[in-house]
Amino acid sequence: MRLRWSPIWQLSNEMQGIIMIGFSLIIFKLYVKNMITAFVAPKMLPYLLISMGVLFLLGFFRLLNSNLKGADCDCDVCDENVPPWKLALSYLFFLSPLVLFFSISDYSLNDDALSKLTDHDGNTTELTEGTGSAGELSAVINDKEQIVVNDDNYFQVMDVLNNQLDEVEGTSIVIKGFIYREDGFAENEAVIARYVMTHCIVDLSVYGYMLNGNLQSAESNGWYEIKGTVMKQETDGGMMPTIKVDSIEAADSPKDEYLYLF
């Protein structure tokens, strides 16, 4: 059964197709510009690409068949007595983010914006036992009896320092990150940190280690390479790892500033 053609029905179908294709193009733009991992963890990428393809195909066929009207429809666009402003308002809700995304300049997740994501607790996050890879000293200490922290072993080193602190105390360490400070830190205290994402940017957290030493030249949010020695520090009745700073040098931020927990 075919109901008679309606301009409101056809326009509604076309708007639905445009909206679905528009959201698929948002994902495509983020993927092509290598910006998508700033919003979601890499493990979610396959699902986003599948969603992009499905949205594009649904939108394409919606546009292709925009002049067809089925007899089984019971939504507002089938009712020609629905006020146009009601339909316009519903589609404006979906069109607004599309217009904003494609009309404004690319958003940059700068340090000020990222720091606000962690202000809700004001604390750096520590790994608990079993969160990172199995911590074995032989896996993180090189031939020079030195721990060199990089993106690949960041959580493994964290696991070792948190759970085998007695064994690594006094070991030389080289680590790169940005300087993070909290209210109440002394002049000789700071954290060498990285932002870590679990699923998406909403759960972004700060993972890092306390520094002690001459840190007056280290600006907050600036990227530095720290060379120091792993030491113990008593905090709240327990022992935590801290790095006694031997030298500090300015460094370029990495291409991907975020680490991914899983």
Keywords:
OB fold (Dihydrolipoamide Acetyltransferase, E2P); alpha/beta; elongated; five-stranded mixed barrel; 262 residues
CATH fold name of the largest domain, please?
A: OB fold (Dihydrolipoamide Acetyltransferase, E2P)
Q: What do the pLDDT scores average to? A: 77
Task: Briefly note the structural class of the backbone.
Answer: alpha/beta
- Number of structurally distinct domains: 2
Oligomer: single chain
Overall body shape: elongated
Strand portion, in percent? Answer: 15-25%
Q: How would you explain this protein's 3D organization?
A:
By secondary structure, the chain is of the alpha/beta class. It has two domains: 7-107; 113-260, OB fold (Dihydrolipoamide Acetyltransferase, E2P) (Beta Barrel). Helix content is 34%, strand content 22%. A five-stranded mixed barrel has the order 2-3-4-6-5. α1 (7-32) runs antiparallel to α2 and α1 (7-32) runs parallel beside α3 (84-103). Mean pLDDT is 77; it is low at 117-135.
